[in-house]
Amino acid sequence: MTTSGIDVAGMVGEIGEDILHIDIPIPHQLQNVNLYLLRGEYPALIDTGPYHPLLEGTIVEALRFAGMEGLEFIYLTHSHIDHSGMAARLSAMTGAKVVAHRYERPRIERVNERLREEYECYSSMSSRMGFPEEIAAHVFDLASVWISLSEPCRIDTRLGGGEKVRAGDRELEVVHTPGHTAGHVCYYLREEGLLFSGDHLMRSITPNPELYCPPWRGNITGLPQFLDSLRLLRDYDVSCAYPGHGRAIHKVQKRVEINLVHHERRLEKTREGVDNGCRTVWEVALYLFPQVRSKPPDVDHFLALKETLGHLLILEEMEEVKRGYEGDLWVYEPA
Ligand SMILES: [Zn+2]
Ligand SMILES: [Zn+2]
What we know:
Helix content: 25-40%
CATH class of the largest domain: Alpha Beta
Distance between the termini: 63 Å
Bound molecules: zinc ion
Largest sheet: 7 strands, mixed
CATH superfamily of the largest domain: Ribonuclease Z/Hydroxyacylglutathione hydrolase-like
CATH topology of the largest domain: Metallo-beta-lactamase, Chain A
Number of domains: 2
Strand order of the largest sheet: 1-2-3-4-5-6-7
Number of helices: 10
Structural class: alpha/beta
Radius of gyration: 20 Å
Mean pLDDT: 93
Number of strands: 16
């Protein structure tokens, strides 16, 4: 037990020599976020957890318990605020340099404006996708709470992928794995076959693909990139992956293949939805995720929409479905 009365000892565990896992509970259905601390000459933290007044004390206490003093580097897997939200505070407290992929810069360095721009863009896209206005308004209202809880953070070193960086007494290889976000990276410890996989690879869930709003380099969805980034992991010899949420993954290649099959099946089901007369992105989303029908509006509705759009755009590219327009509304039919 520490000064704040929080029992942090149970949150910190050793997963290897001088590699600590810090398990931060979060008030979200993902339940936790994992941070990893590599001790040694260049103490380094992988991901920071979210910034939230109720969580800040817990995160700082857990890091102190794990021996955070003198942190040299904060390596971020991606810009989502559950992973990067505390970066500014921890960097100010310790002097650590913040390192992230260069594509993650807008959402980290000017997070409040960027999130606001994104939600405005999502709102304007909603009508095209047939997403009911009252659900959209509610979901984006909920999301705006996060904008007020976000703190911008300067990135000291911008990555491009393929670099080797110091962490503890080890060297991490930066593996660019776009899709969940444009600049998502995993960090690979080649000698030990360990991969810090962020949200790219998790044990029992697959991450939501990015919805690029406005479109980015010709892409609206990050789903095709995400699938390529999954296939990329076949080239890595990984004995264990440590994800951003949930427990470690020991059968990494099996998990990769399961996730690829999962997306194949979802693509098939998306095609089936269009064949069965679902016309808008939202109608197909309800076909794929019928459970959201009975739920009060929350972020799951938007996640279902994003994921469905990703699959529809892949099917369009494959010329398996056709998109037409009714005014602003996108309407799909079998090709
Ligand atoms: Zn994420
Ligand atoms: Zn996450």
